[in-house]
Amino acid sequence: MKVNFKWGLTGYSGTSNDAIYYYNPRLKLCLMRDYVSPRLTENNERTTSIMTNLKALNPSEGYRRNLMDYVMYYNDSKDYGHKPMNAWNNAWLKLIFAMQKALPGQVDLKTITRQQIMDEELPCRTVKDAIEAGLLPYLPDYERWDSLI
SS3 of 99, please? Predict the structure, then answer.
């Protein structure tokens, strides 16, 4: 929900009255969402272990820069009817989960390592490989995004 503040308080972020306020620099808007206390379920534990493992992969600076460029060009492309991405990690998660779906017996996101990615030459090694494998939507001149994870 778009938020309008009184008294020139445009950059506020934080919590107030069971709501979370945050500034989105790409949209140049302050947004608000309700705070929802998460219920502890088996899926939450599974997601936590996957996200912890993906954070431990720690992609290289060049790889992150390639994903940032990809997101910028993806959001600028008018040809596709798509929802824009806000940050490089949106593209990262999209490609990682698409890879797990494409290679179900080979990739387990709870246990994947950088060494496994390099040894098995998985398509998430570079953004270029991911686009060629169909894990990310095609963009022109994608060949330049070839930094290793």
Answer: helix
The pLDDT tens digits for 13-30 are 666 677 887 777 777 777
Spell out the residues 6+ positions from residue 108 whose beta carbon is closer than 8 angstroms to its own.
100
Q: CB count, 10 Å around CB of 55? A: 9
Q: State the residue for tokens 């506020």.
A: 12
Helix extents (H) in 36-144: 42-57, 61-76, 88-102, 114-119, 127-132
Nearest CA to 11 among 25, 33, 87?
Answer: 25
Same domain, 17 and 48: no
Flag whether 149 is in a domain.
Answer: no
Are both 59 and 111 inside the same structural domain? Answer: yes
Q: How many domains is the chain built from?
A: 2
pTM for this entry:
0.70
**67: CB partners within 8 A, 6+ apart:** 59, 88, 89, 91, 92, 127
pLDDT digit string (tens) for 27-49? 777 777 888 887 888 888 888 89
Cα separation, 4 vs 2, in Å, equals: 7
Beta bridge partners of 34: 19
Same domain, 29 and 80: no
Token pair listed for 98: 């698409």
